[in-house]
Every structure is written in C-alpha cells, then in structure tokens.
Amino acid sequence: MVEKPRTTLTDGRQVYPEHRDTLKDGPRAGQQKDYVVLAEEERAKGFVRPVRRSYKHQKCGGITTMGQTLAETYARQPDFYSGTFCCHCAAHFPVGADGEFVWQGTNEKVGT
Ligand SMILES: [Zn+2]
Question: Which is the most buried residue in 17, 22, 29, 89, by most CB within 10 A?
C-alpha cells in the first residue's frame, strides 16, 4: 500500500476544506482561495522534472507564472494537478497529455 504524501497550502499552512472556493473579485478573481502543494519534506525528496515557473495556455497564448512551491510540486510529481489557472482567461483549464498548457518555450505538456 502506498501512503498518500502529506500536502499543505502554497505557504505551508494546513489545508482547509474551502480552499477550492473561487474568488469573485479583486486581483486574484477566478483563482481559488488557496492551492494545495506537496509538503516541504515531500518536495525535498527530489524532482523528476525541471522546476519551471511559467506555462503557456495554448488556447489563448497567454503566459502564467506560478509560485515556487507549486512549481516544485509539478517537478516532484508531474501528475499532481488535474488543472491549472490561466491569468489571461482568468479561469482554470485541464493539464496533462490532453490538457491545454505547455511549459513556456517548449512543446512539453504541463502535467506530463
Ligand atoms: Zn488562457
């Protein structure tokens, strides 16, 4: 049996049930209140992909840059997330092999 790795919010705080609620107003409108990442000790186990901060939404061409702990979570476990935020569309869309995002400057799909 594989134990589920510990997770936190991006700033290390504990995950709470309403973290996925979407903000209606303000500079982060459309984003979740908070995002979950792999806990610090999980990310410290090593990365299987480069740590990349920026990705392109193929539908609109817009570039979004995320925080370091999110980037390290992708690098540690590429399939951790099912979707991600596009700053230009102000909405979430799928990642993965059939997803809508590539790492900036590459043809490599985010989430693979
Ligand atoms: Zn977009």
Answer: 89
